Amino acid sequence: MSSRPFDLLNEAVGKEVLVVTKGDLHFRGTLKAFDVHMNIVLENAEELVNGETKKKYGKLMIRGDTVILISP
Fold first, then answer.
1. Fewest C-beta atoms under 10 Å: which of 15, 44, 50, 58?
2. Domain that holds residue 41
3. β-strand partners of 55
4. Rounded CA gap, 3 and 16, in Å?
């Protein structure tokens, strides 16, 4: 089991994750990449509202300073 945040994110690359951002926006997609600023790239990304798909984005980059939570 990972004990450091970046280890956990490295293990999640290529897997589906949930990202919650400021403004209580929820995105689900395959984690493709991230950097030290927590900028996140998702593939097959969807915006969720009440657990249901609201909009499909394909590839999506989320700015790190808006990220509140990433759940692998």
1. 50
2. 5-71
3. 47
4. 20
